[in-house]
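About this split. The held-out portion is used to measure sequence recovery: a designer receives only the structure tokens and must propose an amino acid at every position. Recovery is the fraction of positions where the proposal matches the reference. Here is one held-out target exactly as it appears in the evaluation file.
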């Protein structure tokens, strides 16, 4: 479904959920949207080549209720990226983001992701071409550096190139990426975080919107970064594994009194799940993203167990969701 282009949300990504491969698909984003009306949601990274040559609707279609939602692209060819942006434009994303941070081997082999930190001029050419094809903001997600780069030198050089190219917002994962010797998982955990450097970049580039990413575990930590002058905070794994800890009450950042409980969020998903099942979809395609709904609460283990064991079976329906919810309500009543 191509949404109404008149519904674009003004660009204000004070809090966002990071693009995560195999995780932040349209079902995951729809669940996160039940906790927050204003947090920005990002697609999994999609390569420009896949959009040009692949199944466009399967890669780009989403539910209008996901707004504000951003498309993250991977690539390093300016013309190819511009063509992908043009193809995606009718789908009505609120932002297009270029991935300059992913350290995986398959990304390196395609000459995009974190390896592009070594080529700021090429990235500048890419974003300039993307902007020509886009009616919405084009942003960049990067690392503080890669391999033997000195982040204190490399990052300001990179940001300067982005600013000259017309980029208004950069999301910085506050870790260096090691392209050799560390797995993608290790690159998310082993290189030390340097939050101070990201804060320093905001001071050095006051007119550039700077968001921080990496190791952020909850809403209070996110608010602390905003209080220190950053323009946005992007949260990844914590938002996936414990969405309530990041997204419940997040809309108060924008002055909105919207803070549904996990029970409310699950209830709001019922019509969406029913429509998915009616169209031939499988229950686990959605509920696999909902396992962390009650993390840290009574009944969380039973909730996960029922969805994990029964949600996978052929023909699983809303009765499985109800059985999982019964585990939660029974545990909460007994607490």
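Reference sequence for scoring:
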């Amino acid at each position: 479904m191509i949404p109404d282009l008149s519904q674009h949300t003004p660009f204000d990504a004070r809090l966002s959920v990071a693009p995560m491969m195999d995780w932040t698909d349209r079902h995951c984003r729809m669940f996160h949207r039940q906790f927050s009306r204003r947090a920005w949601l990002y697609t999994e990274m999609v390569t420009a080549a896949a959009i040009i040559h692949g199944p466009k609707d399967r890669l780009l279609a989403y539910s209008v209720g996901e707004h504000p939602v951003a498309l993250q692209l991977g690539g390093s060819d300016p013309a190819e990226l511009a063509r992908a942006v043009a193809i995606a434009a009718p789908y009505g994303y609120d932002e297009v983001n270029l991935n300059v941070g992913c350290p995986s081997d398959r990304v390196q082999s395609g000459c995009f992701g974190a390896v592009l930190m070594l080529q700021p001029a090429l990235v500048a050419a890419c974003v300039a071409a993307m902007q020509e094809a886009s009616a919405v903001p084009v942003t960049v997600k990067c690392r503080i550096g890669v391999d033997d780069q000195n982040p204190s030198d490399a990052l300001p050089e990179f940001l300067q190139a982005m600013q000259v190219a017309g980029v208004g917002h950069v999301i910085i994962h506050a870790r260096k990426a090691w392209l050799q010797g560390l797995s993608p998982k290790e690159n998310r955990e082993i290189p030390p975080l340097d939050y101070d450097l990201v804060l320093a970049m905001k001071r050095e580039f006051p007119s550039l919107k700077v968001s921080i990413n990496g190791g952020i575990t909850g809403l209070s930590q996110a608010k602390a970064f905003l209080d220190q002058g950053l323009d946005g905070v992007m949260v990844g794994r914590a938002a996936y594994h414990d969405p309530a800890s990041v997204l419940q009450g997040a809309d108060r950042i924008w002055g909105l009194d919207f803070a549904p409980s996990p029970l409310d969020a699950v209830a709001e998903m019922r019509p969406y799940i029913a429509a998915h099942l009616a169209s031939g979809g499988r229950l686990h395609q959605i509920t696999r993203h909902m396992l962390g709904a009650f993390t840290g609460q009574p009944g969380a283990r039973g909730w996960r167990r029922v969805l994990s064991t029964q949600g996978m079976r052929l023909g699983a329906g809303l009765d499985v969701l109800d059985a999982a919810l019964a585990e939660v309500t029974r545990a909460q009543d007994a607490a």
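Annotator remark: The mean pLDDT is 93.
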